Amino acid sequence: HTPMYFLLSNLSFNDICLSTTTIPKMLVNIQTHNQSISYIGCITQICFVMVFVGLENFILAAMAYDRYVAICHPLRYTIVMNTHFCGLLIALSMFISIGNALLHSLMVLRLSFCKDLEIPHFFCELAKLIKITCSDTLINNIFIYFMASLLGGIPLLGIIFSYTQIVSSVLRIPSAGGKYKGFLTCGSHLSVVLLFYGTVVGVYITSEVTDSPRKTSVASMMYIVIPQMMNPLIYTLRK
Length: 239
Known about the structure:
Elements: H1 2-32, H2 39-72, H3 77-80, H4 83-109, H5 126-131, H6 138-171, H7 176-209, H8 213-238
Helix pairs in contact: 1-2, 1-8, 2-4, 2-6, 2-7, 4-6, 6-7, 7-8
């Protein structure tokens, strides 16, 4: 179970970091009744949010692969999911997430703003910031959609592939008890995946069907805060 707990510890640490990028500033704003943030502070917050959201996506994909190897290739589990390989997965995920966030942040820095503007959100979000700029944002929007499709789609396809193979293997187990144990092995992770992608889809749908800043902010809070609160509870209940 060492590889699974290694990945789980990284997921927990990432959840803490993601919450830390938004909640402390929000609490200070509530306490001081001052909702302003500097331009550099806004860019920094965008960068860190993108790093940890991207990293969460990759960690969930790595955990899905861990469950795939454990269920479909149990005799090779300790060979495939060794400490070096797990560390390499996390390091590569961090490198890609940081690089993606820095590229987006640098592309925002080339934009100009006519005056001090208000972002209708409880934290600085890339899409909201781009909407209030005076510059041409075509390149930024194309880059956002391209990278979101690439870095969001590949891990999601990996998760789908892993669970397709897992379900296929578990259904071939003759006994009902074996099937139950097989599905129980990946139940917690599947719950976390559905929670994460469910809130992401919820935010996207809300932003598309409504122009209300309040509703969009509430949906984004569900996406930023709720999964990080629920993940430890889900894995605790498994025990």
